[in-house]
Amino acid sequence: MVKKIKKAVLAYSGGLDTSIILKWLHDQYDCDVVTFTADIGQGEELEPARAKAKTLGVQEIYIEDLREEFVRDYVFPMFRANALYEGEYLLGTSIARPLIAKHLVRIAEETGADAISHGATGKGNDQVRFELNAYALNPQIHVIAPWREWDLTSRERLVAYARQHGIPVETRKDGGADYSMDANMLHISYEGGELEDPWNRPHEEMWRWTASPQDAPDQPEEIELEFRCGDATGLNGQSLSPAQMLTALNALGSKHGVGRIDLVENRYVGMKNRGCYETPGGTILLKAHRAIESITLDREVAHLKDELMPRYASLIYNGYWFAPERKLLQGMIDDSQRPVNGVVRLQLFKGSVSVTGRRSESDSLFDESIVTFEEDHGAYQQADADGFIKLNALRLRIAGRKGRV
């Protein structure tokens, strides 16, 4: 039996899936629907989403600019950890979901709604991310996940339903259904279509942000990024807000073909999935952040961060942003970033990002007087290394005498 719902807040993009869901919620639950569209830098005009919602009878429409909050409170804290899921994925979709869940719950409370709804499929990670984060913020909230209820279980059925009800469908030039995409200020992801076979090469026209590395400028471009407490605050001497910074880095990276990746990842629900991603600004930011950390972090602090990073990345990937363990890790990470101040110089060239310099006037632990190959005037006693090596070799020598090596 369908639970009686008076009002639901739908995470609404105006795209194929959520436009169908809007119609389906009206028909299936006979409830009022509030639409919430988050502007997190997806690069699309959002007013058409408002117009679409109005044509379907929606009276309460929320469209909110969350770009600064997204980068300041979600993207930047994640990058302080140098987070990569399975060594490659920069978590562009994952990190947006807790922000959207937060505002879904807030709007439900403001409008007196008794449910929220999303367009994530029953096979994917996003259903978990939306719902775990929503339940953490409002344990009593009811969630409607249409993909787990309806019989529109393929892209073909969705397209047929949309055409039956007069909902526009974006298609590729060859007439096929478009890729399943997710875009925000950090990245664009592509799934579905020919990408479902991991051997198939993506079509060049699929990529929407970045120039092909082969077609990128033939001359490299050098930039300087300034960091304060682990966050990028200045580009080429100009102070920028978090959202302005990521926007500028996206433009630079896209111009030079930086940030494309094609990978197969392990979803939380248990299956492997092939996806392609464009993360130009994030790719630059990660490279620069690791470079400034290399001269400002203590060795053991840096190594401990690297050991904990995979767990931290998995927490974000799997939907545990508001979980106590992620908050605990974040506190440690943020404390480590107090001395991460300075400037990194990078070169962008045909899909690559290279560090060409790093400096920190007040917080660098790099001591040229010790590391030099020239005369160090007694700053380091090389003879001390003899005892250091012998003490560290003691257990190995004992094991060797016992024939256990």
Secondary structure topology:
Layout: E1 7-11, H1 16-29, E2 32-39, H2 47-55, E3 60-65, H3 67-80, H4 97-111, E4 115-117, H5 126-137, E5 142-144, H6 155-164, E6 180-183, E7 188-191, E8 221-228, E9 231-235, E10 238-239, H7 242-255, E11 260-266, E12 272-278, H8 280-296, H9 299-318, H10 324-336, E13 342-349, E14 352-359, H11 368-371, H12 384-401
Parallel strand pairs: 1-2, 1-4, 2-3, 4-5
Antiparallel strand pairs: 6-7, 7-12, 8-9, 8-13, 9-10, 11-12, 13-14
Describe what is shown at a glance:
The chain has 405 residues and is α/β, with parallel strands linked by helices.
The total domain count is: 3
CATH class of the largest domain: Alpha Beta
Shape: elongated
Order of helices and strands: EHEHEHHEHEHEEEEEHEEHHHEEHH
Enumerate the spans where pLDDT stays under 50 for 5 or more consecutive residues: 173-177
What does this structure look like?
The chain has 3 domains: 7-79 and 92-178, HUPs (Rossmann fold, 3-Layer(aba) Sandwich); 183-359, Argininosuccinate synthetase, chain A, domain 2 (Alpha-Beta Complex); 370-401, no CATH class. The protein contains 12 helices and 14 strands. It has helices at residues 16-29, 47-55, 67-80, 97-111, 126-137, 155-164, 242-255, 280-296, 299-318, 324-336, 368-371, 384-401, and strands spanning 7-11, 32-39, 60-65, 115-117, 142-144, 180-183, 188-191, 221-228, 231-235, 238-239, 260-266, 272-278, 342-349, 352-359. The strands form 3 sheets. A 5-stranded parallel β-sheet has the order 3-2-1-4-5, with helices on both faces. The protein has a 5-stranded antiparallel β-sheet with strand order 10-9-8-13-14. A hairpin with a 2-residue loop joins strand 9 and strand 10.
